[in-house]
Specification:
- The protein is α/β, with parallel strands linked by helices.
- Helix content is about 40%, strand content about 15%.
- The chain is built from 10 helices and 7 strands.
- It has helices at about 15-25, 75-80, 95-100, 120-130, 145-165, 185-195, 200-205, 210-220, 260-270, 285-305; strands at about 5-10, 30-35, 60-65, 85-90, 105-110, 135-140, 170-175.
- A 7-stranded parallel β-sheet has the order 1-2-3-4-5-6-7.
- α5 links the parallel β6 (about 135-140) and β7 (about 170-175).
- Keywords: tRNA processing.
- InterPro entries: Pol/histidinol_Pase-like, RNase_P_p30.
- This is RNase P subunit p30.
C-alpha cells in the first residue's frame, strides 16, 4: 500500500480530478486532500469532500497550518476532530522548536524548496519523532515549474534533514497541484535514495511511516489521550427472538405414520394388566404340576367335609 498524504485540494480547481485519477493509475491506495490556512484560523472550516474520486483510492482530509507565532495553536484540538491529519508548517526556527516539543499535530512539513536561515538539529527533531510526529519531505515544488533554485534547495535541505534525523520518522509526499508533478511510488523511493536514504528507508517513507501517521491520528481522535481506546463497551448482546410467522404461509402437514398392527398389539399387551393365557400345547413345569396337584387335594378335602 502506497500513500501520498499531501495533495492540495480546491473545489474550483479543474485539475483535481485528473490528479486523483493519475494517482490511482500510478498505484497509490491512500491519498490525503490538504487545505492550507495562513494566519489566523477562520471561525469555521469545512473538510474537502470530492464526489468524482476513483473508487480505488481511500481519501483522507488534511489541514496544513502555516505556523509563525505560537499563539496560533489555540484550536488544534478541535481541528484534529474535524480532519484526519493536522500538519504544521513552521516558518522559522522558533516555531519549528515549538512544533517539535509542545504542539499536538500529526505531521511537521517544512517548505524545503526555499533557503532556510537555520540548520536542523537532531535533538529537536528526535523530540518530535519520539512523540509520534513524522517529518515530511514534499518533492513536488522542486520537480517542475519552480526553477533551478527550488530544486537545488530541495536537494540540499532534504539531505540535511535526513542526516539530522538519522533517516528515521520521515515520510515523502508529493504536494503536486498538477498530474505532471506526480511520480510513481518506486520513482519516489529512488529519489529518496538520491537524498541519502537507503532503499528500505525510502520504501518505509512511502508505505509504513505514512500508514503510522494515519493510524496514530485516528487513535488520537477516538481514544483518551492516544493511550486508552474502548474496543468493546461490555454491552449485553440482544437475544435474538424467534422468527416472525408469516400470515399467509401454507401449513405443512405432518406425514401420516403407517399403521403397523404388530406394533400396536405389542404396545397393548405391555400396557394391559390382564394376564396372558398360556398355550395348551406348552408343557407344564414340575412346580406347576405340584401346585395343581395340591390344589386338587385341597378341593377334594373340602368336598368330603361338606
Amino acid at each position: 500500500m502506497f500513500y501520498d498524504l499531501n495533495v492540495p485540494y480546491s473545489p474550483d480547481d479543474p485539475e483535481v480530478p485528473h490528479t486523483l485519477n493519475f494517482l490511482a493509475e500510478l498505484g497509490y491506495t491512500t491519498v490525503a486532500l490538504s487545505q492550507t490556512v495562513n494566519g489566523k484560523l477562520p471561525p469555521s472550516i469545512a473538510p474537502p469532500h470530492p464526489t468524482n474520486a476513483p473508487k480505488s483510492l481511500q481519501l483522507l482530509t488534511r489541514l496544513n497550518l502555516t505556523l509563525a507565532d505560537p499563539a496560533q495553536n489555540q484550536r488544534l484540538t478541535a481541528l484534529s476532530q474535524a480532519y484526519d491529519i493536522v500538519a504544521l508548517r513552521p516558518t522559522n526556527e522558533k516555531s519549528l522548536l515549538n512544533a517539535c516539543t509542545n504542539l499536538e499535530c500529526d505531521v511537521i512539513s517544512v517548505d524545503l524548496s526555499v533557503r532556510l536561515p537555520y540548520h536542523f538539529k537532531f535533538k529537536m527533531l528526535s523530540a518530535a519523532i519520539s512523540r509520534g510526529v513524522r517529518i515530511e519531505i514534499c518533492y513536488g515544488p522542486g520537480i517542475t515549474g519552480s526553477g533551478l533554485d527550488a530544486r537545488r534547495n530541495l536537494i540540499g535541505n532534504a539531505t540535511s534533514l535526513i542526516r539530522a534525523t538519522r533517516g528515521r520518522g520521515i515520510i515523502v509526499s508529493s504536494e503536486a497541484r498538477r498530474a505532471l508533478s506526480l511520480r510513481a511510488p518506486w520513482d519516489v523511493i529512488n529519489l529518496a535514495c538520491v537524498w541519502g536514504l537507503s532503499q528500505e528507508r525510502g520504501k518505509e517513507a512511502v508505505c509504513e511511516e505514512s500508514r503510522k501517521v494515519t493510524a496514530l491520528a485516528k487513535l488520537k481522535r477516538t481514544s483518551w489521550r492516544g493511550i486508552v481506546d474502548i474496543v468493546h463497551g461490555g454491552e449485553k448482546a440482544k437475544p435474538e427472538g424467534p422468527a416472525p410467522k408469516q400470515k399467509n404461509a401454507p401449513k405443512v402437514k405432518e406425514p401420516a405414520q403407517p399403521d403397523n398392527g404388530a406394533d400396536n398389539l405389542k404396545r397393548k399387551a405391555s400396557i394391559s394388566s390382564e394376564p396372558v393365557t398360556e398355550d395348551a400345547d406348552k408343557p407344564l413345569s414340575k412346580r406347576e404340576i405340584k401346585r395343581r396337584a395340591k390344589k386338587a387335594r385341597f378341593d377334594a378335602k373340602g368336598e368330603s367335609a361338606t
